[in-house]
Amino acid sequence: MIQAPLANSTFAIGGEQQPWPDDTVTTATPYETMIQVQNLSPVTVADPANGYTYTVDGVSGGTLVAIPTSTNVPGATIGTLSTSHTMWLTGTFRDAGHTGFIEGTNAASTNDPATRALYLVNTHQSNSLIRITNNL
Asked: Which of 22, 49, 66, 73 is the most buried (most CB within 10 A)?
């Protein structure tokens, strides 16, 4: 864990990894930035495939904060997610510009992109959150 748990928050699954080194033997690189979601809220989703209803402390409406693993101190406030049916965020990326995609899903999401939400983030720039799709 890079810092003690913060009440009413969670980490996105994944984050920003360090760039590939200039060699032919490296198969993995460590994370350089983790994305914390603060201010969780209850999200309820009915799954049409099985009829079940799920309620979790979801990331919908939460604020994304970049935390560099080198300092473990909150950095850029990336932005606030719109209120939706998004329960979780996932995404791992590496880019010299610190920009990448993260994906929002919920209990009813499938492999169909229409059941997912896509966001563009920059872990070094506040207010850089852009919602690419409006599916949840």
From this structure: 66
